[in-house]
Amino acid sequence: xxxxxxxxxxxxxxxxxxxxxxxxxxxxxxxxxxxxxxxxxxxxxxxxxxxxxxxxxxxxxxxxxxxxxxxxxxxxxxxxxxxxxxxxxxxxxxxxxxxxxxxxxxxxxxxxxxxx
Length: 116
Prior knowledge:
mainly alpha
């Protein structure tokens, strides 16, 4: 094989590798955009403007929930609080038009951010 043929084959391989790399980057980009869209919609989900219609609701698989939590950087927490505190938080959440979980998450995030 001539040097010219070898150079052409090498160039073809390089182009092929670049195309594959570009396709992989495009797939990653689209996957990331899906999660960005999910993050953009969080407020609507938390106010139950999205996802609250029982006709269209279905429980996600535990694996899918874990994947979403990981992408959003979330971990679960269960705690017990005074009934009076719970009632006040619930009242404020309703007043702000968000679900209780969203309000508590925001309060905790703000507390940690201030403490840094």
